[in-house]
Write a structure and sequence with these properties.
The protein is of the alpha+beta class. The protein contains twelve helices and four strands.
């Protein structure tokens, strides 16, 4: 009973592969053509490596912070994924087509060029947040131009996104600054009107005046009381001078009571000073808040100008577009040639050492 043949056995039994000469005429040219096409025509590999950047990584964080500018448009999110998506976008390929005039140079329309660039340009991320772009072509200068155009398109698109977001932020800040300006003017008007009405230019001065007047009256009253006690012993209680000093002491006591009064009875009383200063302090706090908001909005509004100026600082070029000096090999063709060589070798080995029960018809003989 003849055992079932394997794939190699089936191929080795074919009439076309019966003799070594036929096998050589079939496999040798295929292997030779694949090997030659692996190296010729010669292709050149152009590449460029870059990494996303923001002003903080360029040493501008302190300056931009003083100007009121924010950090990167994309914040701390995965900037590499964003850059990869932009580099592989239709918009970026359109920029490359326009920059290099590929429609005139290649004779292809936009759709064909989009598909061609999407298939031929390899854009991927490496370790460490590095982006690498590669392109192979028979013309080294053309390959370098394509890669350089892709890098420029990526930077241009990122800068455009940054400027658009900065413009939106500027519009919001303009509205906020206008609203804060109105609030500041209203707070300033209320503050000034209250000071004019109550004749209190500074809140602290009224309280300070009352605070200084009470100890002064107390000290003067004590002095008058001592003088009156001394005069009473020397002159007697019915002396006219004693009545005058008693009147002065009574007047001082009345003034001290008026100053110490908690009700709003006198302009220089404690109650009036506390009530006036409390209202004025509240108005002053409102004015300070309004002025702080207005100043901050203005500073952030000025920072948008700095963000526009640094919008192109979105990518750091690690390696500008260059042509690799190593010889480029078409590895799929190399693999195909190696597979054909291994298949030929397996057929030869199978025919030299066939399994038991398998016999091959030699060239020039019939089955």
């Amino acid at each position: 009973m003849t055992p079932p043949r394997s794939i190699i056995g089936t191929l080795a039994a074919l009439p076309q592969l019966r003799s070594f000469r036929r096998r050589a005429l079939i496999f040798a040219p295929v292997i030779a053509i694949a090997a030659v096409l692996s190296f010729f025509p010669e292709r050149y590999r152009a590449a460029e490596t870059l990494t996303p950047a923001d002003p903080s990584t360029l040493g501008l964080s302190g300056t931009l912070g003083q100007l009121g500018a924010m950090n990167s448009v994309f914040g701390s999110q995965a900037a590499v994924e964003v850059a990869l998506r932009i580099a592989n976008s239709v918009y970026a390929r359109d920029l490359v087509i326009k920059r290099l005039h590929l429609e005139q140079r290649t004779g292809k329309d936009r759709i064909e060029l989009q598909r061609w660039l999407s298939r031929r340009v390899d854009i991927r991320s490496l370790r460490g947040g590095i982006i690498q772009m590669e392109f192979e072509d028979r013309d080294p200068q053309f390959a370098r131009d394509v890669i350089d155009a892709f890098g420029a398109a990526m930077k241009e698109r990122l800068a455009e996104i940054s400027r658009n977001q900065t413009a939106y932020k500027r519009d919001v800040l303009v509205e906020l600054a206008e609203s804060a300006s109105k609030q500041l003017a209203e707070a300033q008007g209320r503050y000034d009107a209250f000071r004019m009405t109550n004749r209190a230019p500074l809140p602290s001065m009224t309280v300070q005046t009352v605070s200084q007047r009470i100890p002064a009256l107390e000290s003067t009253l004590k002095v008058k009381q001592v003088e009156m006690a001394s005069a009473r012993e020397m002159l007697g209680p019915d002396n006219p001078m004693m009545r005058q000093q008693a009147a002065e002491v009574a007047a001082l006591q009345k003034q001290l009571a008026e100053v110490r009064a908690t009700a709003d009875t006198d302009e220089l009383s404690v109650g009036r000073a506390v009530d006036t200063s409390s209202k004025l302090f509240k108005l002053e706090r409102d004015l300070t808040i309004a002025r702080t908001l207005y100043d901050n909005y203005l500073r952030y509004l000025q920072g948008t100008t700095a963000e526009d100026m640094t919008s192109t600082a979105n990518m750091r070029i690690l390696e500008p577009a260059f042509v690799d000096t190593e010889r480029q090999v078409r590895w799929p063709l190399v693999a195909f040639a190696a597979a054909c060589a291994l298949l030929w070798l397996a057929i030869e080995f199978y025919r030299l050492r066939p399994p038991v029960g398998v016999h091959f018809v030699q060239e020039g003989k019939h089955d």
